[in-house]
Specification:
The structure holds two protein chains of two kinds. Chain A is built from 22 helices and two strands. Chain A has helices at 3-22, 30-35, 42-53, 56-69, 80-98, 105-110, 113-146, 150-159, 161-197, 205-214, 238-255, 257-263, 269-303, 312-319, 324-354, 362-388, 405-413, 418-454, 459-487, 491-515, 521-539, 555-575; strands spanning 225-226, 229-230. By secondary structure, chain B is mainly α. Chain B has one helix at 14-39. Chain B starts with 13 loop residues before the first helix and ends with a helix. The chains are: A mainly alpha, B mainly alpha. Chain A binds chain B through residues 74, 78, 81-82, 84-85, 88-89, 93, 96-97, 209-210, 212-214, 216, 218-221, 238, 268-270, 273-274, 277, 280-281, 284-285, 288, and chain B through 1, 3, 6-9, 14, 17-18, 21-22, 24-25, 28-29, 32-33, 35-36, 38-40.
């Protein structure tokens, strides 16, 4: 990093803060602060929805995921367009007709106070924790690669955006997300172009895909089937993506206030629906593009020496430890294989060009064997790194470098200025999702709790109180990030899983509310408590001995289990609770 | 805000929009399947 990179970072981040403050003029009441006076056109709703979902980890982890596991991660989003359709049909008209501020407000008119309070509490709990982790996760990666102090990186990652989020509420969040996404996609496109440009002479985009494809990285569609039948613990395949991903997206976009709050800012039903449906059209291609950059980086590293770990701080730690001799021996073997692989990949491409119709896989056999050997050395380094840190040899998280791949490439190979811009977009991506989260946390606190306790007040007072709640949640999330720092790297993975512990149950409550008019609040409340406990038990089954009999299930399925289980239990309980089925006339 | 007064852009009804989004998803899955097979 040189001075030019720092200037680019400072200008980009400073520019966004100033733009956010410039766009902060809003009516000083709750509708102006939390819903931007319901004035947004569909394209701002779309960009706000996308900017809220795409966090820093999306851009850091995506390419690394493709590097390590191929492109099958894109299947995770296959249920999203279907969820957009269901939300447009059911959720949007009801939320807009009732003119709610939060999704949970509706639950009181449909059920009762306790069900609304439980649901908004579950939302606040999971959203505040996951926002804290969303601050910490990119901070720890930047700190490890660039030697920055993680405490101050957390402050900048989670703190500077508070300035415009507190000041301008939902309007400032939406307008800054628009500019952030334009910068992010521009910079990512340039990064993708640079990877191809830096390939050896004569190796182009299609060649890079040939190499990635032959080494298993273009596995966009996978069935999840193994010799023993369907693997329920397989995270990403077409079925978990369509079914599990559908329930996850339905819950996230339909019941998580950080998303509901975005499309409630729309002028009317049409603008809300268009924003959501366009998200259903562009999300998968966008994610495909991010993953494709990872495949290109993978192909690039077939011609260039890749480090034993992209988290280079682990190599430094090993070098300074009693294990340094083992490291040097491993490095020598790894380098030797890398040299052989470089020669073999060139030979493979030459053979492909000489006979492109050759269906026989022989050309790639040697390359595959060398790649397997290379990967085994990387695995050996992870075991060595675990030993250096005093971790168990089979600890899969500590030395996992998936999230470091993209930034390690940026750091090593991109020119000054562009390197600064790519680092700046990590901050921008984080700010976009964190700002929306803070706005939604404050909205739920004010509408679902503060107003319930204090009653409605003067508009200006409520506006000021909302600003203070936004500020308070910002501080809370930074504190969570600082504590996450004490708990190690595995939390980076937790941000993906945490939502699934709560989303299924929250979705189940809304499904009962919308589609099972005979079921009342008490039956739904009890079913929610039971299913939440069950989902948490499922998640901890490998960690707690008496829960071991429960099956191993990938987190994506927990959304479906939580939602369907709650609907079933609530309906059964209602049979024993006649008369407890309050249904609001406005939604019946 | 009243739904019946709103003009639906591009298509005649929202159902056409929903069919378009689902059709696009199916098209993407087909293209991805071809891509996977071609480069594997």
């Amino acid at each position: 990093m040189n001075a030019f990179d720092w200037v680019v970072i400072a200008l980009t981040l400073g520019g966004i803060i100033l733009y956010g403050l410039y766009k902060s003029r809003t009516t000083k009441n709750l509708e102006g602060y939390f819903l931007s006076n319901r004035s947004m056109p569909w394209y701002l709703v779309l960009l706000s929805i996308m900017g809220t979902q795409a966090s820093a980890i999306t851009f850091l982890s995506g390419p690394g995921q493709a590097y390590a596991d191929g492109m099958r991660f894109v299947q995770y989003y296959f249920g999203l367009p279907l969820a957009m359709v269901v939300i447009c049909i059911t959720f949007v008209p009801i939320f807009n007709r009732l003119k709610v501020y939060t999704a949970y407000e509706y639950l009181e008119s449909r059920f009762d106070h306790k069900t609304r309070t439980l649901t908004s509490f579950l939302f606040l709990l999971q959203r505040a924790l996951s926002t804290g982790i969303s601050i910490y996760a990119p901070s720890i990666i930047l700190s490890a690669l660039f030697g920055w102090d993680v405490f101050w990186t957390n402050i900048i990652m989670g703190g500077l955006l508070i300035i415009y989020t507190v000041n301008g509420g939902a309007r400032a969040v939406a307008y800054t997300q628009k500019i952030q996404l334009i910068i992010i996609f521009g910079a990512m496109s340039v990064a993708g172009y640079m990877v191809v440009k830096q390939m050896p002479e004569g190796v182009g985009f299609i060649d890079a895909l040939q190499v990635g494809g032959k080494l298993g990285k273009l596995n966009v569609i996978t069935s999840g089937n193994t010799e023993g039948g369907f693997n329920w613990d397989d995270r990403y395949n077409i079925w978990s993506g369509i079914i599990g991903g559908f329930f996850l997206a339905l819950s996230y976009f339909g019941t998580d206030q950080s998303q509901v709050g975005r499309y409630l800012t729309a002028q009317n039903n049409t603008e809300s629906r268009l924003g959501l449906l366009m998200n259903g059209l562009v999300k998968i291609p966008m994610q495909f593009f991010i993953l494709l950059i990872g495949v290109l980086i993978f192909s690039f590293y077939q011609f260039q020496p890749a480090p034993l770990s992209f988290n280079t701080s682990l190599i430094d730690d090993a070098r300074a430890s009693p294990y340094k001799d083992s490291l040097f021996a491993l490095q020598a073997r790894y380098d030797a294989v890398a040299a052989l692989k470089k020669a073999e990949v060139s030979r493979f491409l030459a053979a492909e060009k000489a006979d492109p119709d050759n269906e026989v896989d022989d050309d790639a056999a040697a390359l595959k064997a060398l790649n397997k050997q290379s990967e085994s050395y990387r695995s050996q380094f992870k075991i060595l790194s675990n030993a250096v840190a005093g971790k168990a040899a089979d600890d899969a998280n500590y030395a996992n470098d998936t999230n470091y791949v993209f930034l390690a490439y940026v750091k090593e190979y991109l020119p000054a200025g562009l390197k600064g811009l790519l680092i700046a977009i990590i901050f921008l991506a984080a700010w976009g999702s964190i700002a929306a989260a803070l706005n939604s946390l404050a909205a739920s606190t004010v509408i679902d709790f503060h107003q319930r306790i204090q009653g409605e007040g003067q508009p200006l007072n409520e506006y000021r109180i909302s600003q203070w709640y936004t500020f308070g949640w910002g501080i809370f999330c930074i504190v969570v990030a600082q504590f996450a720092n004490q708990l190690g790297q595995s939390l980076i993975e937790a941000v993906n899983v945490l939502g699934s512990l709560f989303y299924g149950v929250i979705l189940g409550i809304f499904l009962v509310a919308f589609y099972f008019k005979k079921v009342g609040g008490s039956a739904t409340f009890i079913a929610a408590v039971v299913m939440e406990a069950f989902v948490v038990c499922l998640f901890f089954n490998e960690r707690v001995s008496f829960l071991k009999p429960l099956p191993d299930i990938s987190f994506l399925w927990m959304n479906a289990i939580g939602a369907i289980g709650l609907v079933l239990i609530a309906n059964v309980l209602q049979l024993f609770m006649p008369g407890n089925n309050k249904v609001s006339a406005s939604v019946a | 805000m009243e739904e019946e007064k709103e003009k639906i852009p591009l298509f005649k009804s929202w159902n056409h929009w929903y069919a378009f989004v689902i059709g696009f998803l199916i098209l993407l899955i087909l293209l991805f399947t071809l891509l996977t097979k071609h480069f594997s």
